[in-house]
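[INFO] parsing input record for Alpha-galactosidase
[DEBUG] input buffer:
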Amino acid sequence: MIFYRLLGLIFILETIILISSNVYGLDNGLARTPPMGWMTWQRFRCQIDCKEYPNDCINENLIKRTADKLVLNGWRDLGYKYVIIDDCWPARKRDSKTNELVPDPDRFPNGMKNVGEYLHSKNLLFGIYLDYGTLTCEGYPGSMNYLELDARSIAEWKVDYVKMDGCYSLPNIQPEGYENFSRLLNTTGRPMVFSCSYPAYISWINNIKLIDWNRLKKNCNLWRVLGDIQDSLSSVVSIIKCL
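[DEBUG] output buffer:
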């Protein structure tokens, strides 16, 4: 029940944020309505110990099981089509020869392209997490110095949705970095929804009034300005009160 309740809470929160902000996102034909689906972070965080927690770790099996559930229980047909892998999916280091991001070989033995193909075979959409920093929030390789390379990689994996976080970078450089990545995503020719986290970092460290909304909406389909949603209605309400 928690899993399904969260799907509804996420949809409600995203809808409220979009309506209350009165700012429309990147006009590239994507995310005309709030994207609906499932993301690993809410329930599984950064659980990578698959020996101790085989059914609760971030791995290929979890993603495919979840995809099957979305289809079997009718959620896909209600519009919950995005399956998004949050932080902790990569190996601890980039490929030593190409510098490409690589998925953890033990947890994703068939690679991310295979995961995407499985999701697409179920008429679902594939989402993935990156971070505009030297590291991700959980200490995995960041994308700051590899924006073009990472844009190409996820396009080759047939990703449909990109969440870009903002750990391990300074808020004052994030707007330009995200803008550059938005442009690079466009040059791949692969349509990808771009979810931007940097407004949250600006509002936490400085002030929400410092966000350039016009610049933001030209580069991002959707964004966050506040803290993480937790597994409770009180969390949703607390975020709404901040808007």
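[INFO] The two ends are 28 Å apart (CA to CA).
[INFO] shutting down worker
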